[in-house]
Structure formats: C-alpha cells, structure tokens
Amino acid sequence: MSTLSLLAFDPESVSLGCGVQSNYLAVGAIVPLVRTGVGAVVAQGVGDPNIARRVLDGLSRGRSPGDALEAALHGDPLKHQRQLAVLNSTGQSAAFTGDECRPEAKAIGGDGVVAIGNLAVEGAIAASLGGFVSAPDGALARRLLAGMLAGSAAGGDRRGALAAGLLVGGARFSHVGAPDRAVDLRADASALPLNDLARMLDVHELYYDPPSPAPWLDRAGFDDGTQALLSGFMKAAGESDWRDVFESLNLAHRYDAQRDLIDPLVPSRLRSLALSMAT
Q: What does pTM read for this prediction?
C-alpha cells in the first residue's frame, strides 16, 4: 500500500506516534502500530501488520531498531516490496525500503522523527518532515498533523488522498484506557481526510484532554458565533440549565457551575464538535 507516513518521539511526554495518509482505504487501521514503552512502526508498500508486530517484539527483547527490522524481515519472500520505519522508546530510528519499491520511495529524518513514503509527489516526504519539525511546541498528535498537512500541501500521494490516521501512545490521559492508543483517530473514504482528522482531533481534545490550567471564561465575553453554537446545543439538549447542557454533551469537566465559567478550550473546539454531531 502506497503511503506517506510520519513517526515521532516526544521526550517531554515520553510518547510515540504515527501519522499516515494514503489513497488506500483504512490505512490508519493497517499501517501504524504503537506499543507504549517499546516503540512505533509503520509497515507499508506491501504492508503486513504481523511484520510490524515482529519488529516491536524484537525491540521488547532489547534489539536495536535496525536489528529488530532485520530480524522481522529475515526469510520474508516479500521483503523487497516492503517499506518500514521504526522508532524505539527513546527515539532511536531505523528504516527499510525494499529494492522493488518505486524509485521515489524513501525515508528521511533520523532519531526522534522519520518521514517515509512511496508513490508520493516529489518533495512531499521532505515537506512532511519539515512541517513536523517547524510545528509549534505542543501535543505530539498536533505536531504530527501539522507534518501530514505540510506533506499533503506539497502533493502528498500521487493518486490523491482517501484515508488518514493518527495513532499516539503514551502516558497521557486516554479515553480508551489503553496507553498504546492515547489518540487513535481515522478518516476513511473521504475527499478531505486530513480535514476530517483535524476536526476529530479538535473533538478528541475537547472530550479527553485534562481541564485547562488557563483562566476560565465568562460566557458573556464570547463572540456571537460561539454564543449561537452554545444556544444551539442548549436547544438541542432540551435543557435550560448550563450544567445540564454540558453534562448532556459529556463535557461536565469543561463547565464550572459554581462560578458559571467555561474552560477556554471550548470556544476554539465548539465548531468542530457541532460539525461532528451534524454528520
């Protein structure tokens, strides 16, 4: 499967993540794999999640990324058509591109971050890496998305985009209760999969990030657009009390009923939530 992928390690949060985009349906379910405390792998070209699992098994036994890749591919009859990249739990990297992959297939980067692709427009792999590196400091998923958007803006997959995925594992709060999937978002059969992914990440942060430490906001100070969205949610919920509205949206942690204040994350994410609930 022809895919443009990013793998990255965030030493501050000790998290690993992958971002993938492709013309291949369900790429986010097939290509990336993260095992917290062990490593992250993408297996593309002639992709096989079992190869990725073998790479992670090798890392868990103490192999280096290069040795884990070599061992996983040993004796594989399709080795020359595969393309893989791996980061271990400290950000050390290795990559492999089979000699039967397309000439433009390659991996760039090094320890901490790798961009890898095949059937990508010339410059898209480098643009993806550059977009990640130049992204503002912040959550790893956000920086991966910035890299993916930069790769797409540079042309991305030669055939166009159909699907994308974000997978981040780490110690940060996870709604799924599994550190290997602190963020696990996928957009499929979409004309604009990265736009869909960005919207889903907005909603994910609204639901699952911890309450903001920044000063909370008085609703009266919101602009007209945000006021209208809040009023729409109140009407849809059939409630007259803001506490009940936020509870009906599963956002009770974003509203301080005692002081009638709202988490400052809410205004910037509310439109994405409204769009998601309307689709």
A: 0.93
